[in-house]
Design brief:
about 525 residues; mainly beta; 16-stranded parallel sheet
Length: about 525
């Protein structure tokens, strides 16, 4: 065979080396010999596969370590440093009156793994040096109090454990920078107190509770089938609650006296009360959440200031999509905004009670009983909303004053009329404006009968003085930017290439011994 033929074949084989394997096809293995947890973030019980080989477990009495010298006396494998920690593994410990494994007041690195523990508490770690403790791949079964207890210990890691019903599965107190991830917890909760900068992620459990723990991150957890809120945040400023699935609890997420929160991209559905319940929360961002099929509200807020609700879905809830009750105070000078939300199939789309200085803009509010209802609420601004096919009024103002409503589309609301008339709006307050008197712009009404004004139902005898003959739905659209002309660029071979294409090429090379040069082009679209 010619030399250039062999060179070409070698180059092709080297190329195969760059094709990545699909990680989803790899078999996940755990340290040790007897426990494997596969796909713990799945929501079903069968998602966690536990393989016991009891012959590998060593029956052991409770382990009680109170110092570095105790660690050394047990002759565990390892050296106690970061790269070679002491390894406590493959023990079966059962006690009715003691902690299964207790470690305190140590400075050495240690790992507890692959142990099966039953006790008043399964594992307790107290006052050990920062970043020295790792608890992984254990089974804590029917512990009468707490499964894993972390106390006054910084930067502990608790991961890939299976914990059956306890009063509390994982409890961290005064233990900042803890990492609690990928644990499978049945009918029990994770609780942290005074443990700032803790990360709780990818766990299956019934509830997560954080108190006095600022900068906590709670993300990608599945919380369901508990009593109370799926995720409860109290006095935790700057917390982030991201991409969690919270279902079939009394509430999805509840917050109290926690400010500058980020509640983003959570699925909060089928709860017994509300998807989100915020009390005394300020300067927080609630974005891209789905709050649907909750028995009460999509979100309810009490005494909350300076919030931004954006790009959320509030649909098919038993009462309100958004319920805001905010006893207005003199210091409330900064607006809260409710923008770009989809709100449909609720009793009330948005309901304000005793609220002021809120902006409701660019929302689609459709097929509710009433689109927006304001009661005892003042100085709110409602603009650029689509209020469509709500059974009664698109906007109803009850004993509410000095609100402005303009640049909205009112589309086929109140089709069958009420005792007050067939208008799509209602007003019995004082000094409300259904148009902007400075810019001479009002709202678009699909049942407008003349171009001079549009009468509003209610004892205020109000009217939109400048109704628009055209919808505002597309008023903010801009001219699209032309697509640039594509230019060819040299690129690497796409990973989707089939081996069936390569075998004939290699065969031709071997038969003819010709030297081939492959230059592949792909159109790059900017």
């Amino acid at each position: 065979m010619k030399k250039d033929t062999w060179i070409t074949i070698v180059l092709l084989l080297l190329f195969f080396n760059y094709i990545p394997f699909n990680p989803n096809n790899q078999v996940n293995s755990s340290p040790g010999t007897f426990l494997e947890i596969s796909n713990p973030e799945n929501t079903s019980d069968s998602s966690s596969t536990v393989n016991y080989r009891f012959s590998d477990l060593i029956d052991h009495k409770p382990i009680n370590i109170l110092s570095d010298q105790d660690l050394l006396s047990h002759n565990f494998t390892g050296y106690g440093n970061e790269s070679h920690p002491f390894i406590i593994e493959n023990f079966r410990i059962s006690t009715l009156s003691d902690v299964g494994i207790r470690i305190s007041n140590t400075t050495k690195h240690f790992t507890i793994r692959n142990c099966f523990v039953t006790g008043t508490a399964g594992i307790r770690v107290t006052n050990v040096s920062e970043s020295t403790s790792l608890i992984e791949y254990n089974v804590l079964h029917n512990c009468t109090n707490i499964g894993i207890f972390i106390d006054e210990t910084n930067s502990s890691s608790v991961r890939y454990n299976i914990i059956s019903p306890n009063i509390t599965a994982i409890y961290a107190i005064k233990s900042p920078k803890s990492f609690i991830d990928h644990n499978y917890i049945k009918l029990s909760s994770i609780k942290i107190i005074k443990s700032e900068y803790t990360n709780i992620s990818n766990n299956n459990c019934s509830r997560i509770i954080a108190e006095e723990s600022p900068y906590t991150i709670i993300e990608r957890n599945n919380c369901s089938e508990g009593i109370g809120s799926s995720i409860s945040i109290n006095y935790c400023n700057y917390a982030e609650i991201l991409e969690n699935r919270c279902t079939r609890n009394s509430e999805g997420i509840s917050t109290s006296h926690s400010h500058r929160l980020k509640i983003i991209n959570n699925y909060l559905c089928y709860n017994g009360a509300s998807g989100i319940n915020c009390y005394g929360t300020k300067k927080s961002n609630i974005t891209d959440n789905i709050c649907s099929f909750n028995k009460k509200h999509g979100i309810q807020m009490f005494g909350c200031k300076y919030l931004r609700l954006e790009n959320n879905v509030f649909s098919s809830n038993g009462d309100c999509g958004i319920y805001l009750r905010d006893l207005y105070r003199a210091e409330s000078k900064v607006e809260s905004t409710i923008v770009n939300n989809l709100i449909s199939h609720n009793v009330f789309g948005i309901r304000f009670y005793d609220s002021r200085l809120k902006v409701i803009s660019n929302n689609t509010i459709s097929k509710n009983i009433i689109g927006i209802i304001l009661r005892y609420s003042v100085v709110n601004k409602i603009t650029f909303n689509i209020l469509e096919q709500n059974e009664r009024y698109g906007v109803q103002l009850l004993d509410s004053d000095n609100n402005t409503i303009y640049l909205n589309d009112f589309v086929e609301n109140n089709l069958y009329g009420t005792n007050d008339g067939y208008s799509q709006g209602f007003d019995n307050g004082d000094y409300n404006s259904w148009s902007n008197l400075e810019t001479f712009t009002g709202n678009y009404w699909t049942n407008m009968t003349n171009s001079d004004s549009y009468l509003i139902d209610g004892s205020a005898n109000n009217a939109d003085l400048y109704p628009s003959p055209l919808s505002f739905r597309y008023v903010e659209e801009t001219t699209p930017t032309p697509t640039p002309t594509p230019t060819p660029t040299i690129t690497t071979l796409d990973y989707s290439i089939s081996l069936l294409w390569l075998f004939p090429i290699i065969t031709i090379i071997m038969k003819r011994g010709r030297k081939f040069k492959f230059v592949l082009f792909r159109e790059k679209v900017n």
